[in-house]
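Hey team,

Sharing the 23468_t:CDS:1 run so nobody has to redo it. Sequence (65 residues) first:
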Amino acid sequence: RTCVHHEMKPQPLIHHLPTDGKHLKEYYASGKLISKIALMTGGDSGISRLVAALFSLEGCEGIAI
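Structure output:
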């Protein structure tokens, strides 16, 4: 089953993070994946999509899901 985070006890941490924006910092990539190719398996709840976006920020040139 996917998307059951509302049933979790305790609730996921994301519900307790500040949302006012003053505590948030801009993300700066380290470049550790420059010219690399990634292969991701699984991820039926959107995790692979998020990881692919973050890998591309880090310089990953090819992503296969």
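The longest strand covers residues 37-39.

Ping me if you want the raw files.
A.
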